[in-house]
Amino acid sequence: MKKVLIISTSLRANSNSYLLAEEFKRGAIESGNEVELVSLKDKSIAFCKGCLACQKIGHCVISDDANAITEKMEVADVIVWATPIYYYEMSGQMKTMIDRANPLYSKDYRFKSVYLLSTATENESYVPEGAIKGVSGWVDCFEGVTLKDTLFVGGVTDPGDIRGNEGLVKAYELGKNV
């Protein structure tokens, strides 16, 4: 059994990337894993100040929702990011959360596997490349951690457009095999 943390970064209700995350969650639970899905929707997460105090004190000096999420990341075996693609990159709130997870560098984090689930209006295969590069850069900063897999579903714009899309089946299968 693995402890899986899924972080949904879309701020829209019933977003396509959130629905993708839900299917990953369903597959991971059915395989006997302990799974938590955290949404950044309605969370207060400020920008990193770059003060690096977190490296000395073990947590961010900014008191908001990012600290609790970072604590969950520290004890997870698997981290799954789910994001809409905005302008060929991860959502700004995802990047902000990644920056605010900086205290993890000096900690004894458990996660070894990272996944990226993404959705976009555009459907070309190159659309998620910026987000993949950003997550890969973050993963490369952690010893022994790998970006296990990515899943991109394009051609979905409005909330719920992904319903009936084969990408949901792929997300479920990824979760099942986490």
What do you see in this structure?
Strands 2-1-3-4-5 form a 5-stranded parallel β-sheet, with helices on both faces. The relative contact order is 0.22. The model has no long low-confidence stretch (mean pLDDT 97). It is globular. By secondary structure, the protein is an alpha/beta fold. It is built from 6 helices and 5 strands; from the N terminus they run βαβααβαβαβα. The N and C termini lie close together (10 Å). It has one domain (3-176): Rossmann fold. β3 (78-84), α4 (92-100) and β4 form a beta-alpha-beta unit. α1 (16-30) runs parallel beside α6. Helices cover 35% and strands 20% of the residues.
Stretches where pLDDT falls below 50 for ≥5 residues? none
What's the number of extended β-strand segments? 5
List SSEs in N-to-C order.
EHEHHEHEHEH
Spatial strand sequence of the major β-sheet: 2-1-3-4-5
The structural class is alpha/beta
Strand content: 15-25%
Rg, rounded, reads: 15 Å
CATH architecture heading: 3-Layer(aba) Sandwich
- Within the CATH hierarchy, at the fold level, what is the topology? Rossmann fold
Number of helices, counting only DSSP H or I runs of 4 residues or more: 6
Our measurement of the CA-to-CA distance between the termini, rounded to an integer number of angstroms, reads 10 Å
Task: Report the biggest beta sheet as strand number plus sense, adding barrel if it closes.
Answer: 5 strands, parallel
- What spatial form do the alpha-carbon principal axes imply? globular
Our count of domains comes out at 1
Mean pLDDT across the residues is 97
Helix content: 25-40%
State the CATH class.
Alpha Beta
CATH superfamily: Flavodoxin domain
